[in-house]
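Sorry, explain these tokens?

___
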Amino acid sequence: MAPANHDAQPVLDRAGDTPLHAQVATWLRGYIRSNKLAAGAVLPSEAALCDRFGVARSVVRQALAALAAEGLIQRETGRPATVAAPQEHRRLVQRSTGLYEQFAQSGVSLQTRVLALGPADPPADVADFFGTTHLLLLERLRHVANAPLAYVRTWLPAEAVPGLRAEHLVDASLHGVLTRQFGLRPGAGRNQIRAVAATAQQAALLNTEPGTPLLMLQGQGMDQHGKPLEWFTTWHRAEQLVFDVDVSMGHESVQPRLNDAAVQPDLSSGSQDPLARAQALVAELSAELSRLRGRS
């Protein structure tokens, strides 16, 4: 059900399988996002929403409770709901630990829905990395409080994970499953961050609009024996996630790349300290996000 403006009369599918409260919540999400309501903006009262949707107050309260659990709105007894300030989740980009482990360490529960798991033909660069085309493609959607946060595509060597099934990975850590069931532990790797525009498929999965800026993290990881273990690409909702970078003088962990070769900085040893490298990365991402927002 597409978002409508404030004056449009929403039409609910009363004969379908989707509960009415879920349809009301979907409409309200779209209304908040399509109108770009700022934090503190007041939503219609429960009574007004009941009239607008033609539903009982219990249905409206269930819908509002779902949005409050997602952090999208705030509710106070006796007052209309208001739009909440954007909630930011944080991820360290230079750690081999996955999103699930990092969120668990910060006390955030990350839900995982497996969209697909099976043999697939890999792109040439993926096949070159593994040295084989005998690979599995795993597709997952990660949620926080039922709000989509990230879409993940991961390539795995089929021979290294015999018997891996989708049900093993529901609301679970891939790295944890690889360690417990197959004795494979993530080791060294390389991650890259880019700002990209959401495709129609990604937008549908992440409950946003095509062309919306996303933060894409792509990485290749080895196991504890130095053998290729995973090739992953994760598209994150940019307004909900912050990438943190640890900067130390003794270890260079960030190597920014600018799209324009003409302004490529000299990253040779000694030309920039790690803090300048991190600042260059932040500047690059900020510029790219601004460019994408200007196009959307």
Notes: The chain has eight helices and ten strands. The domain at 89-244 is CATH 3.40.1410.10 (Chorismate lyase). The first strand starts at residue 73 and ends at 76. The two ends are 21 Å apart (CA to CA).
